[in-house]
Structures are given as C-alpha cells and as structure tokens.
Amino acid sequence: MSKKNAVIILSGGMDSVTSLAYAVNKGFGCFSITFDYGQKSKSEIRAAHYYSKFYNCKKHKIFQIDFSSFSSSALTEADKSVIDDSSNKIPSTYVSMRNIIFLSIACSWAETLSCEDVFIGANAIDYSGYPDCREDFLKAYEKMINIGSKTGSEGGNFKIHRPLVNLSKAEIVKLGHSLGVNYKKTVSCYQANEEGRACGKCESCDLRKQGFLDNNFPDETLYI
Amino acid sequence: MSKKNAVIILSGGMDSVTSLAYAVNKGFGCFSITFDYGQKSKSEIRAAHYYSKFYNCKKHKIFQIDFSSFSSSALTEADKSVIDDSSNKIPSTYVSMRNIIFLSIACSWAETLSCEDVFIGANAIDYSGYPDCREDFLKAYEKMINIGSKTGSEGGNFKIHRPLVNLSKAEIVKLGHSLGVNYKKTVSCYQANEEGRACGKCESCDLRKQGFLDNNFPDETLYI
User: Which residue of B145, B150, B158, B162 is the best one to mutate when testing the A interface, meaning the one whose CB has the most A CBs within 10 A?
Assistant: First the structure.
C-alpha cells in the first residue's frame, strides 16, 4: 500500500518548490535533495528544508559538493587557480555541468532507494542560456542514464520529470498557485540575506516579480 | 605551441594508469583527477599521485565526494539508513552511477580548463556487470554531454576517450607494456594494505595476475 517514491532536486527556489508541489500532487512519496555547492546564498538551503517539512518529504538530504574546486562561477566562490585558458563565452552565473552532476547524484540515490522517478525544476524559457535546462538535453540525459545504470539494464526505466521545462515564469507561478503553493519562503534572489529576504534589485528578483505581476497576483516575496 | 590538454580520470589502478600513459603517448598535456569517494583502499589514491607525478601531469586533483551518503556498496562504508526497499540484483561492488558522476565532474573541470578531451579507463570485458563501463553507455554519455554543456552548444565537441573499453586484461597489460608502463605501484586489490601491497587472493588480484600470465610477463605486483 506504499506510495510510489520519487527523488526531488530541491534548491529552495520558486521553480524547484513548484516541482515538489507538483510531485506531491501526483501522489508521489518524496525524498528531497538539496546541493550545498558553495552558493553564496545559504538561506536557499534553509528554504529547501522548510518546504521539505511542509510537504512531508520522507527524507531531506543536504549534499555537499565543492564546485569551486573544479568549476568557476559568479554563484560560487571562484577558484581560478586551475584555469589555463579563459573564455569569455561562458556567462558568469553558469555553473559548468551543474544539472548533469545534480541529476546523476539524484539518480544514484533514487537507485539506492529502488525508485525510478526523479523531478527537476529545470526551465528553458527564462534561462535559455543554460544548455542543461533544455528539453533536448533532458531527453538525452534520460536515455543515457537508462543505458548506464543497473536500473535501466535490468528492465527498469528512469523517468526524469521536468514539469516546468517549457513554462514561462508567469506560467510557473500560475501552476504553483493552482497547487496551493505559498511562495513566501522560497528564495530566488542571488544576494538574499541570512533570513532569506530578497534584494528586489537583481535579475532573478525582477524575473520573479514579473511572474506575479503577469498573473495579477500580489508579490509574495519578502524583501529586505 | 602549447600541447592539447586532456583530463584523465585516474584511480591509481592498472586500467586508469594505462589510459594515462596512452594519453601522454598521444601527446596530450594531462590534468589527472582522482575521486576519494570513501573507498576502503586509500593506497589507490597515493598510487594515482605517484603516476601523476611520474607522467608529469600539469595538475593532480583529488576530489572528495561522499558516495556513502547516497549510495551503498561493498567498496565503501555503506549507509543503508536511507534505503526503503532492498534489491538483490545489484552486485555488492557496484557503486551506483559512479562513472556517470566521475565523468560529469571531469567534464566540468575540462570545460573550466577550456579543454574537450577526457580519458576514462572503463573496460567492458572483465566488468561486464557494470553498465557504466560499456561502449553503448559511453557513446550515449558523449552525446548527452555535448547537448547539455556550454562547450557543445557553442560548437565545441567533448570527446570521451575510452582506449581500453573493448580490451581484455591481458590486452591492457600488453598495451601498457608497449607504452613502457611499470605496473609495480598500481593498486588493483580490493583490500590492499597501507603501502599498496596486494592480498593476492581477491577477485581483482586474480584478474590482474592472469593479465600478466596470459602475456608470459612476470607479475609486477607487490604482495603483502
């Protein structure tokens, strides 16, 4: 009589919380995983913990992985000492292979839990510069993980659920509201303070604000 | 006039050291990466460091990742507290998604270094039970990483070199010898001692011994 389980990649931001609410609504028993990868805003991680509890996740795992030692991004403390050659094509907030690494660890945990469903809040519309947020990537990832895993080679089938992949921010907010999500405690701001309050000025804050505005919903964000 | 660079996944075992020697022979400037993922035999990591120096790697990175917190395997300290359901199909030495995670971190580092060549000593013949050691997986991985990365989406092309994928252990030893590899300090044994000396009794030791024997080479392994 146990529910079907799923692993949910949960950053604590608007998108991943919507994806968690979506999975809960679909009847999955949820195991959430949050990556502490040296991002500047630790309040995201606390938000992830809050929503994991709120949605009765069976377990919330916080997994530390030090991206700064092999990658560099404006989202983390950059260690550029290993870089021989620099390229100006990579945007400063791009964390190289972030979703690929997150998905791989989430799928490994899922396999250990004997479950085949993994949710990611990846979204191609507002972040089209990130190649690992797009449908064609997620499709190729799903194929690869089924060839390269015990699960896939023993007749199972990993499903990488990406309910938001083709939604705009306004559509995500609309979907979230239809599922009863209260976004007050989600953290999207790149420079949120310790309590998770948003600056209201950065690109991420603007995008989020517009999401509420386009729906004629009041902005639930807590600002500094 | 700088050489083309490559990232080499280097465990310190026979296969990965052969793959490093192969890359050096092909003229690559090598950046080696070794994963400290809670494996019981730490002498492998020292062996990786020894060969990185021996082959003049530009950098040897030791990257810690705690597999025991999301996976369970006889190769690591198992934390089974998160397991809801157990399956008897997974062999005890299988580490769920190990090569997928290693490749993803190696490719992330490669992208940061602006290089597109990654070497892995994966080998399908002797470890056919491991789905992430096979050619079809590596092909799917290569496709996925090029779709999901900046490198691939900006016209670059990651190449996942797998020079040993279809070689038997005897053929690997033969290739290594043709490249001048001395295997004395490589560690293959699952229960090597602190100095890296092998037990001579486990499955991995047997396989390695046979590799020398089939070539009529003296066994270079240091035993306890």
Answer: B150
Residues of chain A contacting B141 with CB distance shorter than 8 Å: 144, 148
Contact (CB<8Å) B69/A63: yes
Q: Give the ipTM of the model, two decimals please.
A: 0.88
pLDDT digits (tens, 9 = 90+) for A2-40: 579 999 999 999 999 999 999 999 999 999 999 998 776
Q: How many domains does chain B have?
A: 1
Interface test with A, best of B31, B94, B114, B144 (most A CBs within 10 A): B144
Contact A96 B150 (CB under 8 A): yes
Q: Is residue B204 assigned to a domain?
A: no
| Domain membership of residue A138 as a residue range | 5-179
Alpha carbon distances (Å) from B152 to A144, B106, B142: 16, 15, 10
- Domain membership flag for residue B217: no
**What amino acid occupies position B168?**
S
The CATH code of the domain that includes A151 is 3.40.50.620
Asked whether residue B210 is domain-assigned, the answer is no
User: Running DSSP on this structure, what letter comes out for residue B219?
Assistant: P
Q: Does B224 fall in a domain? A: no
Per-residue pLDDT for chain B (224 aa), expressed as one digit of tens each? 457 999 999 999 999 999 999 999 999 999 999 999 877 678 999 999 999 999 999 999 999 998 887 776 554 543 333 223 334 444 566 778 999 999 999 999 999 999 999 999 999 876 656 889 999 999 999 999 999 999 998 999 999 999 999 999 999 999 999 999 999 999 988 888 888 899 998 888 988 999 999 999 999 999 99
**Pick from A90, A100, A147: CB nearest B137:** A147
Q: Which of A71, A147, A153 sits opposite B112 (nearest CB)?
A: A71
Q: From chain B, pick out residues whose CB is under 8 angstroms from the CB of A89.
A: 150, 154
